[in-house]
Amino acid sequence: MKKTDVLIIGGSAAGIVTAVTGKNHYPDKNFLVIRKEKEVLVPCGIPYIFGTLKNSDRNKIPDTILSNAGIDLKIGEVTFVDQENKVCKVDDGTEISFDKLVFATGSIPTVPKWLKGAELDNVFTVPKNKEYLDVLIEKLGDCKKIVTIGGGFIGVEVSDEINKMGKEVTIVEKLPQILGLVFDDYLASRAGELLESRGLTLRRGVGVKELTGNEKVTAVVLKNGEELEADAVVLSIGYHPNVSLAEKSGLEIDELGTIKVDEYLRTKNHDIFAVGDCAGKWDFLTRKLSGIRLASTACAEARAVGMNLYGLLTVRTFSGTIAIFSTAIGDTGFGTAGLTENHARKEGFHVVTGIFEGIDKHPGTLPGTHKQTVKLVVAKDSGVLLGGEVMGGQSTGEIVNLLGLAIQNRMTVNSLLITQIGTHPMLTAPPTAYPIIKAAEEAAKKMKRA
Amino acid sequence: MKKTDVLIIGGSAAGIVTAVTGKNHYPDKNFLVIRKEKEVLVPCGIPYIFGTLKNSDRNKIPDTILSNAGIDLKIGEVTFVDQENKVCKVDDGTEISFDKLVFATGSIPTVPKWLKGAELDNVFTVPKNKEYLDVLIEKLGDCKKIVTIGGGFIGVEVSDEINKMGKEVTIVEKLPQILGLVFDDYLASRAGELLESRGLTLRRGVGVKELTGNEKVTAVVLKNGEELEADAVVLSIGYHPNVSLAEKSGLEIDELGTIKVDEYLRTKNHDIFAVGDCAGKWDFLTRKLSGIRLASTACAEARAVGMNLYGLLTVRTFSGTIAIFSTAIGDTGFGTAGLTENHARKEGFHVVTGIFEGIDKHPGTLPGTHKQTVKLVVAKDSGVLLGGEVMGGQSTGEIVNLLGLAIQNRMTVNSLLITQIGTHPMLTAPPTAYPIIKAAEEAAKKMKRA
């Protein structure tokens, strides 16, 4: 029987970061990562293999990340975890005994059971699976009209990339706006306009009834009876946690279908951890279970687990998931951190908002200057920052991270108003009109009035 | 006699933001800005009028910022402040009585008294003065060889821009590195290499003895006796606070030559404030008087003053200046927040550092991917973040702001390690190798060892 100190099941972002961080903190322990896939893709890079990279080989995570850190790797599927004996059974018949075990089994694309025709040829999902995606790209080559079902981040990114391949792409989204769960109307509608200006067709506010065709899909039938011709369909309705192994092995599953963990990502069995998409999460602000699954959150969890494998070295001060997303449509970045206004109100927060539209260089006459819009969502009485949305240029991703950091530090509008920021003509908004601070001023005004 | 509630002397960033913020908080009060200049330039945009904008008209701050906010503007020079009667005398013979007075008189380029030949024709400084700069640009048109004396931010930015005009530019810096006060050797030497690759010549580690020529400058003589031919010389040795009016009017000046203020930017006379380059500052970390003068700091101060003009509405929690700088050389951004390692050690801090070199998109095969390097400086025992340096692409300015926010929130390496960040292929480093967090890991390792 093979023996290892720490066994990590799953080799995507969460698994890798757990292993590397763990080995870093406990260099005397043996670490073994076991995964099903021969090769692993950068998860968030997957949409970009279609039109930009043109090839999944350019989006691989090299195994040298593990080997350079002195971490062992095995390709195989764990079929059962014997908790009592601390042994994993692998599909090749081998057994691996462990001291600590980490589930990093990720998530898999959801194919709704109610969707008739989902089994037809040329109906695809977007799994984190290189072989599948290579086939998908190849098959898309022969297609002209593509319909994407679901206008969340993955649906939007993949559609925009398939559009770059020269295809006619239509996104069907049942909510009134694409990206409607993560942005309030103002930014979501702008994202929609931008996609349309790039040649995509959007069908918003209408659900899908079924997919039709003989063997191969030929049409998407909407709930209003309309039919959209389709040579291929991409389902991007969501992902659900991959917990079948955990369930089979007797681990507790929470009501969102994720592995039940405490704030240190430990299961009831303190030698067994779960991280990433398969692990339970709480929202930082609402304190409810959260269904938001991001590679960046997975990595933050993985670092905490890696450090705390053999004793709690690091207090997880910022417990709870802050949804920090960003994406790009062409050269326009969109990002969000924390709660949207809609979400906050739905949860019962009394909020005010502030919005400011500025520029990302200064003066705006500089070449390459991009508009930059920031919206802040703030608790009306305490002034605590609950969320923010950003639309801008190349720096959008890091501005969203700034907002995320402010939320994690429980900063208030008042503290934002006197925050020092650095500015530079070529790199940022002007010091006189830095959008986060101007939006905070707007919110502060409304707090006073309220 | 003209009467106003709030009189602000100076119409650059600090004056404008004080007025706009003040009017925002106290809409019933009259605000009047008085300034000498007919037109005002975006201060940090000034270097870019040479090669990129090609014209100072494209770098103006429009007066509509004031008029739209309901703030009055007068062009003129205040010659004396009568504190007892609360009256300002203006050079056109008028007098203005005020209730609250704000000095925002800025800074002026330093021309060292010991520098022989500084009075020659074609020896320039870089003041915030449109007329002067328009003449400078015109005169540079006839020049071939330009020597810049002083390799700080302004010297580097102006030189790189003049190089874009097709001139031969040499920067003379007496420190071993250009930008040597704000970056440790590692980044400073990279900035130097980059400038050289763009065709600039650097003379480092050698001072200037004198400028020579008849009427017009023809050469810069170095301390080692060497002569550099020069058709024009740009002095960018530093700026000193413009406090002659304050001094004349009996305000107290501190040992760095700035107007003495308390943590709310009030002078001993609580109806008189000072903000921006002319006002005294403390370093956030060393608690010493600070000589670092930035538009962004000025604006943070101005917001505090604007809010607190008639009673202390907002506690200045983050008192003290954090030096948050950024600049760009071509498409490479350089930035720094807080203390460099050298500076921290000189001040007596026991520090460890962490450095990580990654990429600003992921996977690195994406077009336009730029290297991204982060260095963190951390207090060895407490783990409190003292400073950070960044070299990267377009997002460098906002990453430096992230570091600035972390410093202001007194974050530690431990809290950075479990910080959640958002990542996106097109906009940020990968979640598995986000440079701030990887650099924090390096620093954490060294803390353990120490």
Summarize the amount of helix of chain A as a percent range.
10-25%
CATH fold assignment of the largest domain in chain A? FAD/NAD(P)-binding domain
Stretches of chain A where pLDDT falls below 50 for ≥5 residues?
none
- Whole-number count of domains of chain A: 3
Chain pair sharing the greatest interface:
A-B, 85 and 85 residues
Tell me the name of the CATH class of the largest domain in chain A.
Alpha Beta
Span from first to last CA of chain A? 68 Å
CATH architecture of the largest domain in chain A: 3-Layer(bba) Sandwich
Number of strands of chain A: 26
Q: What is the oligomeric state here?
A: homodimer
**Number of helices in the DSSP assignment of chain A:** 11
Strand residues, percent of chain A: 25-35%
Radius of gyration of chain A: 23 Å
**Mass-distribution shape of chain A:** globular
Structural summary, described in words:
Two copies of one chain form a homodimer. The first copy, chain A, has 450 residues and is of the alpha/beta class. Chain A folds into three domains: 2-108 and 240-308, FAD/NAD(P)-binding domain (3-Layer(bba) Sandwich); 123-237, FAD/NAD(P)-binding domain (3-Layer(bba) Sandwich); 324-449, Enolase-like, domain 1, CATH 3.30.390.30. In chain A, 25% of the residues lie in helices and 26% in strands. Chain A is built from eleven helices and 26 strands. Chain A has helices at 13-25, 64-68, 130-140, 153-164, 185-197, 244-248, 295-308, 341-346, 396-408, 413-417, 435-449, and strands at residues 2-3, 6-9, 31-35, 40-41, 60-61, 72-75, 78-82, 87-90, 95-97, 100-103, 107-109, 123-124, 145-149, 168-173, 201-204, 208-212, 219-222, 227-229, 232-235, 239-241, 272-274, 324-329, 332-338, 351-359, 371-379, 385-392. In chain A, the strands form seven sheets. Chain A has a five-stranded parallel beta sheet with strand order 6-3-2-10-21, covered by helices on one side. In chain A, helix 5 (185-197) links the parallel strand 14 (168-173) and strand 15 (201-204). Chain A starts with a strand and ends with a helix. Chains A and B meet through helix 1, strand 5, helix 7, strand 22 and strand 23 of A and helix 1, strand 5, helix 7, strand 22 and strand 23 of B.
